[in-house]
Amino acid sequence: MAKRYQRLRLILGDQLNARHSWFRQKDETTLYLLAELHQEATYVTHHVQKICAFFAAMSAFATALKGAGHEVLHLDLDDTQDYPSLPALLELLIAKYEIQHLDYQLPDEYRLRQQLASFAEDSAIDVSVFESEHFFLRDNELREHFTQGKRHQMEAFYRRMRVRFQVLMDDDSSPEGGQWNHDQDNRNKLKKDDLKHIPQPLLFANDVSGILERLQRHEIKTMGQTSAQLPWPTNRQQAIDLLEHFCRHGLPRFGYFQDAMTGKLESSDQASQWSLYHSRLSFALNSKMLDPQRVINSAIAHYRDPQAEAINIAQIEGFVRQILGWREFVRGIYWANMPDYAGFNALSAERELPSWFWSAKTNMRCLQQAISQSLDFAYAHHIQRLMITGNFCLLAGIHPNQVDQWYMGIYIDAIEWVELPNTRGMSQFADGGIVGSKAYAASGNYVNKMSDYCADCTYQVKQTSEPTSCPLNSLYWHFMSRHEADFSGNPRNSMVYANWHKKTAEQRSAILKRAEALLADIEQL
What is the pTM of this model? Predict the structure, then answer.
């Protein structure tokens, strides 16, 4: 006969917050539930490292809770295989353990929030909903900053957050160092001499062989590569270790090279090539093993530590802007605009994603590098996502649904609240400008400016309409030309269209013809 509990508390895979108020007191009548669910493993095709990381982190969290004296039920895919959905599993457990109260934290994904709200409405027992206690802004505060369908400026929001939470401030209203944003200092290309200074990343060796066996046994379709030793953090201490490693070794030059890309490191340094100076904390943050306040406090402590390697204001500000600014901003955009946001397609993009996005078998060096790295590590940094894979999809007119599904699946840190505004909004401009004031479209010139990819590419970055020309060049002009009615009214695009119309009719025709040939043969690029 199963033990009886009065209260069941659900912990989702991205709610691994050891500092949550739930855990301050032990209660033998409260049962905590963590469950590997088929519905979560299959709603998109996930990277195998992503599923392994979440499942391993859930297991470690369950073990930690048990060690702290809590009553915990951790179910794996074998245990949940007969339950097609989370509500079906909850119904069984409520009956089995004679549960009188169900508690859950607000999910950060619309799909799950609706699913649990519907379950609560129909439930015969009392259901209570709690904050996740993770973000700077509480859920009910978002409406004070974000309005459905309205264009919002991240910079203005970021400054309000700096003032409210007194982060890098000289006084109540003045930014430390005299300016709010140091982005102009953070757009450097990695030169040959810079490569030898790139730090080796901190990698782990978490055994996920049992998870891999379960995925195979249950025929869970995945993408990408992995081994039985997962390099990502799967518990809070590993996440803290990764944070400290970044603050010591990455932060001193993070800002300078946060937009840079390279394919030139020796084979023995491949790990450095994909990590560069980036923190790689996004999975630990988005699973809530780390909280953003802890991350920012640690970074600022290193910035102020006279014994640490010197970190200037541009480096720390660039990092703080990502966490306090951008991360909180996209969450607000998501909740202000869902569920409509998931269907936006302002540019009427309809083309299918090329099959080589799942194999990296393309002659375009920049895309080959970004995609193969993503398949190998379930990770690419923000410029690779925005200005390499994202830029190509934008220029080629790939349907945003397909772009979303690829990004949601391939990246270890991809949860819909953060992925959707970044991809459908910032990257694909499918929201019509709610996130960004202009489409982030770029030719091969940008890639050449910020990386060393072009030197080893089959295509020629300095050519535009020739048979060997970089596809991004003609695709860029084709994109800007076909959307001239949409974009020409934006003053930020005035120079672009002035340059386009300075070209002769013959030049424009040749460029558009080259682009159309590339699009017609997109699988062979």
Answer: 0.96
